[in-house]
Amino acid sequence: MNISIVTVGKLKEKYLKQGIDEYLKRLSGYAKVEIIEVSDEKAPEELSETEMEQVKNKEGERILAKVSPDAHVIALAINGKQKTSEELAESLDKLATYGKSKVAFIIGGSLGLSAQVLNRANEHLSFSKMTYPHQLMRLILVEQVYRAFRINRGEPYHK
Question: 157 in a domain, yes or no?
Fold first, then answer.
C-alpha cells in the first residue's frame, strides 16, 4: 500500500519530527508512506469570512495538486466520522483488499480544508471533537496508521 499524507505547512518542532520519523521507520516494513508538505498561505491573524475562504481555497489548490487522481482520499475534518483504531485498521484492510493501493490522508492548515478538498475526499475522518494543532495531527495520524497495520497483522501493540 502507498500512503501519502498531504499536509499544509512546514513542521518546525524537533520533538514532533522525531516522533514522526520513528513511526515512519516502523511503518516502512508495512507500507510506503510519504509526507507531502504544501506551503501555507500567509495571512494576518484577523480575517473576514471571505478572506478565510480565500486562504483555504489557495491551500486547497496546492493540496489537490499533490493528490493522485486514483487515490482514495481521507480528509481529516472535525465533523468527519470518528472511528476506533480497530475500525481504521479494518478500513485500510478493505481498501487494500479491493485494490485501492493508493491512500491519501489530508491534513489542512490552521483554518481547515476548502470545500473543494472536502468534496474530493472519499471520506471524512475525525480524531476527536477537540481541536488539535495540525502539526501534532501528523504525529497522531502516523501513529494510528502504524497501529492499524499492527492490528491487521495480528501483531501485539500497546493498548
Answer: no
> Binding site annotation covers 109?
no
129 labeled binding residue: yes
Cα–Cα distance list, 15 to 61, 76, 148 (Å)? 29, 22, 23
**Other C-beta atoms lying within 10 Å of the C-beta of residue 81:** 11
Tell me if 131 is assigned to a ligand binding site.
Answer: yes
Residue 20 lies in a domain: yes
More confident residue, 99 or 24: 24
Counting the structural domains of the chain, the total is 1
Q: Which domain holds residue 43?
A: 2-152
Q: Is 111 helix (H, G, I), strand (E, B) or coil?
A: coil
Cα(144)–Cα(130) distance, integer angstroms: 17
pTM higher than 0.85: yes
What are the E-state strand segments in the chain?
Answer: 2-8, 32-38, 72-82, 102-107, 123-126
Q: What is the pLDDT of residues 12-52, one digit of tens each?
A: 899 999 999 999 999 999 999 999 999 999 887 888 899 99
Tell me, what CATH number does 50's domain have? 3.40.1280.10
Q: Which amino acid is at 57?
A: N
